[in-house]
Write a structure and sequence with these properties.
Blueprint lengths: L1 E3 L8 E6 L5 E6 L5 E5 L4 E6 L27 E2 L21 E2 L14 E8 L3 H6 L4 E10 L4 E9 L5 E7 L2 E3 L6 E4 L5 E4 L5 E4 L11 E5 L5 E6 L4 E8 L3 E6 L1 H6 L12 E15 L4 E12 L3 H5 L6
Antiparallel strand pairs: 1-2, 2-3, 3-4, 4-5, 6-11, 7-8, 8-9, 9-10, 10-21, 11-20, 12-20, 13-17, 14-15, 14-16, 16-19, 17-18, 18-21, 19-20
């Protein structure tokens, strides 16, 4: 079924369809041709295409699409934890649950704009969730696509009753890149990071930009609210803007680890890079009635226009 986004342009719409497992997906489209696809399994963005139809997110050819397994690719949502600790499954349960379309979302500030097509999703805890993480919450997610094809995700997590709780969070974004050895990240230089390959040792980034020649698994701390991923071969730059998310995870499994992952092709590490807007080092604490907001905006621009587009926010 199709829904017009608003009266301002009937060609902008979202449509709901089912995938081959019978799971609902929402497709957002704008007139210039950009699109995004969101699965209700995990509230996960599984496709983001520019106006030329080029896929901007990586999905493994060996990805397992059948619930409850989280799909390897797109933008899985990690909540209420990032990583693997305690009784919860790795990266939490939000990415493995069935979300619903929220027909009556609370009003968001007008800064979100009317020049977008959006869908609102909602996750509430099931009885099983309450057994392993006994907290009453509402997780509202808005996914929006702007007229120029920028993708925005806004998460609002509310403690609706009971006792205080804390959580960590990440938008685990898999970018599609031409060749990992041709990619660099700007905006994280001079920052401290936790190195997951060295027992989370705290180190300081020394490079002028982050480049890749081996496995990387780091959490950069206290990062700027705008960073950039430059793909030299495609002459494309991903600009990542974020609010409420102080940390940035950078991950590529490289050759050896890729071969041990059943849902990732042996050589696919060359075509992917995870750069996550996250809140990991310091847990987010919510008292009853409190709400947390975490916003991610992704743009893909020609590298020749990148310095203008970033607006001076990236530190050099």
């Amino acid at each position: 079924m199709g829904h017009s986004a608003s009266v301002w342009d009937q060609r902008s719409e979202f449509e709901v369809s089912k995938d081959w497992n019978g799971v609902d997906q929402v497709v957002l489209r704008v007139p210039r041709g950009a699109s995004a696809r969101v699965s209700l399994h995990g509230g996960q963005v599984i496709s983001w295409r520019n106006e030329r139809g080029e896929e901007l997110l990586f999905t493994s050819s060996k990805a397992i699409f059948k619930p409850p397994k989280a799909m390897r690719g797109g933008i899985p949502i990690c909540f209420p934890q990032f990583g693997n600790c305690g009784s919860l499954e790795q990266h939490g349960f939000a990415r493995n649950k069935m979300w619903i379309i929220d027909d009556s979302p609370p009003h968001l500030p007008s800064s979100d704009g009317n020049d977008k097509v959006s869908v609102d999703l909602l996750l509430k805890p099931s009885e099983d969730d309450m057994k392993c993480w006994p907290h009453h919450f509402e997780f509202r997610l808005r996914v929006s696509l702007s007229m120029v094809g920028d993708l925005t995700m806004i998460s609002r997590i509310r403690n609706i009753n009971g006792k205080p709780f804390s959580f960590s969070f990440a938008y685990h974004t898999y970018f599609s890149v031409s060749d990992i050895s041709e990619v660099r990240i700007e905006g994280l230089e001079t920052l401290d990071y936790l190195d997951n390959l060295q027992q989370r040792e705290r180190l300081t980034e020394q490079g002028d930009a982050i480049t890749f020649e081996s496995e990387v698994d780091r959490v950069y701390l206290g990062s700027p609210n705008a960073i950039a991923v430059l793909d030299h071969e495609k002459k494309r730059t991903f600009v990542i803007r974020k609010e409420g998310l102080p940390d940035v995870v950078v991950w590529n499994p490289w050759e050896k680890k890729s071969k041990s992952m059943v849902d990732l092709g042996d050589d696919e590490y060359k075509q992917m890079l995870c750069v996550d807007a996250a809140a990991i080092e310091r847990a987010i604490n919510l008292k009853p009635g409190e709400e947390w907001n975490g916003r991610l905006e992704l743009s893909a621009v020609p590298s020749t226009r990148y310095s203008d587009h970033i607006g001076g926010h990236v530190r050099y």
